[in-house]
Hints:
Elements: H1 3-21, E1 29-31, E2 41-48, E3 56-62, E4 71-74, E5 80-95, E6 98-111, E7 122-130, E8 137-139, E9 141-146, E10 151-154, E11 171-173, H2 189-235
Antiparallel strand pairs: 1-2, 2-7, 3-6, 3-9, 4-7, 5-6, 8-11, 9-10
Helix pairs in contact: 1-2
Amino acid sequence: MTRTTARLAAALSAIALVAVAAPASAHVGVSSPDAAKEGFGKAVFRVPNESDSAATTKIVVTLPAETPFAFVSAEAKPGWTATVTKAPLDKPTTVGDYDLTEAVSTVTWTAKGDGGIPVGQFDEFAISGGPFPDADSISFSAQQTYADGEVVDWDQPQAEGEAEPEHPAPTLTLGEPTGDHHGAASTTADTEDAAATTEASDDDSSTGLGTWLGGAALLVALAALVVSLRQNRRRA
């Protein structure tokens, strides 16, 4: 192998590594400013549009049947219709201080008219309720419907120690109990808005930094390739 070929191979390898390190495609996720074990709080589902040509027109969030919520309400969103559906439980269940024979099973947001989440954008959909279970985390499932009829189910469990599945189920990490059963943080509107704003800012900063670093690494690799080819021509 000549020096030129070797340098070319090294440069191409560097470029390939940058491509591999690029961020994975976005997926439906869930976060909260105040959800805690055995408390009440807010769960915010972030939904990206991954289609190249169609808007997202419907989102269905399914709550886990094994850990039902005593109370659930859906966030009202301009341009969307929110529907809360209840279902009977297999057997009476006590959740916190509440005896349940039925519980909310799904929350559905449907876009009005020709609205929805446009291509290349995302939106957030929230529920408020509880009590959350006494567990480290809680997993939901989400179904995303596009205007062209495509349906994507986000419901694959994440196995410990394994790579993330293609369509992972949205999983929320719960805070420790506070003793007042009202969540890990203040539930005032100002606190929730501040936490949501901070989270969005952190996500945007992380994404921007990752993109900048990936682009810088690609430029370095290409520059090395150009220098190598010029040096080889001079020697020839």
